[in-house]
């Protein structure tokens, strides 16, 4: 039985409806735009949400929360303005681990009945609120539990400043429901206002219009006037400072980190302009970054107006800023035009990787973007090997019914998606392709879309009955077929060709110190390290380490790649670096391959478990969910 039908059975126990009178006025609606189009009646079923937006849908949220660090809880209320499309007497929200205290209707706040339906661990439970056909406003009083998977509560020791606690949320893919009762589907958009009360010495920021400094009251207000999907709801609270970069851009970080961050991301204004030049005006007013403590489980998260970013990209040489280009690109592909369900995740990430590489090409040239494409291709190949080239999960259009959408978060969506778009670009030429992408973003702005809708648009706007072109684009091969199509064009890089030359020289006996590596960026180093053979002697490892100081690299990508070899070759000199890395960094992308390599041998497994016991309290629920499974 699938998750959705299981839920329908649970629903049949719905209780009585309490009829209450309530005002029908739409007040408190500070919207600059309507989002009429955002949930068409034909919206596809989202198997990861219990909401039934075709019947009753939320349009605007007023959030009022108090942040309690002692109890590790958010308490308060979520008030929704709703649209009842069918005259139904219930509206359904998603929840997971929330304590729902009371539900009230209308401006009069008249209490109504509700139920928490049957659910499961991944999806949580549907909150079924009894309403009248004319109810316009629903207020849900609730608090979160310490297990809320979206929230990470950090003690002062886990921050850069070591003095104040810190909180951040991670809502994508379906974790918003662990901190807000919400219709948690990317096919539904809401505007929101929020009031957040925090301890006086801390600042709160959200995916919204943000304050730039603390005030004495500890009370902050927010407004997001453009309609956004629930997975972009975000909040962070900490000892934060703000630094302006350009007129439209800036950085929030702990005072101890802000200098380094301002240097690293000094080019973000330029990036914003490069992006606008490619695909049209930035639609969200400001673009700021929030640099989080190292336990942040991702590299970056494209929360609108305020990208959340890992401090592991603070490499001191601006070498890892393609990650910012990536999150910025989501302001178009993802935040403006959104995957309607998690089966269409590649629409978000494939377009974003394509766009990210275009921004990097614009700023640093084609040879730079080529390196990123080759590294991406290597990642893609590893993913294909891991999943199996015949696996259904290697198709762009996924089927995640009955599974956690997190399972769709692979390089298929990112890199196969990107190479599909590059393939279309090659077929029609850059000029035509750019016009098409511009048209796509403009046509679907502030809407959610599916793979099928995108393909219809591709056929009607670009292919236009040209059969030879359709054959070159090969939708069937890319979108619905596992693996890579036979005519896949393998990306190449001239800068990497030099790395390969140096590598061959080293292999045929030239000392490492004599290799020509002076001009190399971290991408070249990463390519070099990834080429190292399965079999290496301790002397070879030591020689490279002595020449290039990999074990002490300040570049997280280089260090993580090197440590992986150190584990495989039992190069114990790097033991301390490995342990320090695993206990300080919470970014899942780095953790998983390192722990996986460790558990390949019995001694390694012992070491992995010992380190994990120490490091686990420092990881976000997103990372522990994966690692608990791996290390059990
Ligand atoms: N939106 C993603 C992160 C994400 C996806 C979180 C799905 C939860 C579920 C973000 O834009 C992203 O892709 N981050 C990457 C960095 C990027 C440069 C590939 C990451 O965190 O590694
Ligand atoms: Zn992304």
Question: What does the model show?
Answer:
By secondary structure, the chain is α+β, with helices and mostly antiparallel strands. It folds into 4 domains: 238 residues, tricorn interacting facor f3 domain (Immunoglobulin-like, Sandwich), CATH 2.60.40.1730; 87 residues, Zincin-like; 149 residues, Neutral Protease, domain 2; 122 residues, Serine Threonine Protein Phosphatase 5, Tetratricopeptide repeat (Alpha Horseshoe), CATH 1.25.40. The chain is built from 19 helices and 21 strands. The chain has a 7-stranded mixed β-sheet, with no helix packed on it. Strands 15-16-17-19-18 form a 5-stranded mixed β-sheet. It has a 4-stranded antiparallel β-sheet with strand order 9-10-14-12, with no helix packed on it. It starts with a helix and ends with a helix. The relative contact order is 0.08. The N terminus is likely disordered. Bound molecules: ligand BES and zinc ion. The site of ligand BES has 15 residues, from strand 18 and helix 4.
List the topology elements.
Blueprint: H1 3-11, E1 56-68, E2 73-84, E3 90-95, E4 99-105, E5 110-112, E6 114-116, E7 125-130, E8 137-143, E9 151-154, E10 166-169, E11 189-197, E12 203-206, E13 219-229, E14 235-238, E15 241-244, E16 249-253, H2 255-264, H3 268-279, E17 287-291, E18 300-301, E19 306-309, H4 322-329, E20 337-339, H5 345-364, H6 366-387, H7 411-428, H8 430-443, E21 447-449, H9 451-463, H10 467-473, H11 475-480, H12 494-507, H13 522-531, H14 538-548, H15 556-568, H16 575-584, H17 588-598, H18 602-615, H19 621-631
Parallel strand pairs: 1-11, 16-17, 17-19, 20-21
Antiparallel strand pairs: 1-2, 2-8, 3-7, 4-5, 4-8, 6-7, 9-10, 10-14, 11-13, 12-14, 15-16, 18-19
Helix pairs in contact: 3-4, 3-5, 4-5, 5-6, 5-7, 6-7, 7-8, 8-9, 12-13, 13-15, 15-16, 15-17, 16-18, 17-19
